[in-house]
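Lecture 7 notes: from sequence to structure.
We start with the chain below.
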Amino acid sequence: MTRKKQPKNGRTAKPKSLLKQLAAVPEKLFTGKFRQQFAAICFRYKADRQTIEILMVTSRDSGRWIIPKGWPIEGKEPYKTAAIEAFEEAGVRGKVRKKPIGRYTYLKLLGDGDVVPCIVDVFQIEIKESHGNFKERGERTIVWVSPDEAARRVREVELKSLLAEFKPQRRRPTPK
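Predicted structure tokens for the same chain:
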């Protein structure tokens, strides 16, 4: 087993921030190797049927607030992947919009310590059911908050904008 060297002052060294790690290998940003993910803004109407709440979950590793998201699933459409992630991470199901309502980018820290830039297409899901038994139960904290509060809780600037400005998009009626 390899031990990390202790600095002379006795303090343990802080891990480098994602930006510092990426700055050490800037070619990752400019090689066109962005990874794709799919996410869901899960929302529900409050009793007044006008005001909405947005579902937030914590990440399993850092405990920071995020929206349900994940990697593409072979053979599944992107909107279906977002719906699967919402169920696995928070136990919710509902009506999924098939077209993305936006996208954001962020830096993903992989399990091997590597950092990769990701583009995340975001789909809206109007939640109709909530289940207490789901895959990642006990691994995440789940809360329902206002769009403004959701925006305050996340780190990614583009995602903050999506959440703060979120208005459910309804289906357009088909012309007769």
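Points to note: The chain has a mean pLDDT of 84. The chain has four helices and eight strands.
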